[in-house]
């Protein structure tokens, strides 16, 4: 990973942490905005997905410091019939998937709009 890509991922992660502080649904909105802004970049969606996972990992770490995240993971794991670590894996996977999907959809929309505008239609 190059230094520029690592710095870019860190900045996007911080933006996603700020979005997540608003609400969980702000993450796909922020990822979509990032995907639209990086429509010409091949790695934009991957960066969005990884940053989404890192942002929610930071949120989980913060919640673990101030609250009973372990108890919640154990309870939810019991309901889902999985181990508590599975709850964390599912949570981070969800964050990564909604970030990647939002970035790809926004990137595709920008590209379609740009090609439509370029063709005069």
Give Rg in angstroms.
Answer: 17 Å
Low-confidence stretches: none
- What is the number of helices? 5
Strand elements, count: 0
**Largest sheet features:** none
Along the chain, the helix and strand elements come as HHHHH
N-to-C CA distance: 40 Å
Helix content: over 70%
Principal-axis shape equals elongated
Q: Give me the secondary-structure category.
A: mainly alpha
Characterise the protein shown here.
With 121 residues, this protein is mainly alpha-helical. The chain has one domain. Helix content is 84%, strand content 0%. It contains five helices and no strands. The longest helix is centred in the C-terminal third of the chain and has 35 residues, at 84-118. The mean pLDDT is 92.
Question: Short summary of the structure?
Answer:
Helix content is 84%, strand content 0%. It is an all-alpha fold and 121 residues long. The chain has one domain.
Keywords for this structure?
121 residues; mainly alpha; 5 helices
């Amino acid at each position: 990973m190059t230094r520029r890509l690592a710095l870019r991922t860190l900045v996007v992660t911080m933006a996603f942490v700020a979005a997540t502080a608003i609400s969980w649904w702000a993450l796909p909105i922020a990822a979509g905005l990032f995907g639209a802004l990086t429509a010409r970049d091949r790695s934009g969606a991957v960066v969005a997905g990884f940053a989404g996972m890192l942002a929610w990992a930071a949120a989980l770490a913060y919640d673990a410091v101030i609250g009973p995240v372990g108890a919640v993971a154990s309870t939810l794991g019991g309901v889902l019939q999985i181990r508590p670590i599975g709850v964390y894996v599912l949570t981070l996977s969800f964050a990564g998937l909604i970030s990647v999907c939002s970035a790809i959809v926004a990137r595709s929309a920008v590209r379609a709009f740009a090609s439509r505008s370029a063709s005069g239609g």
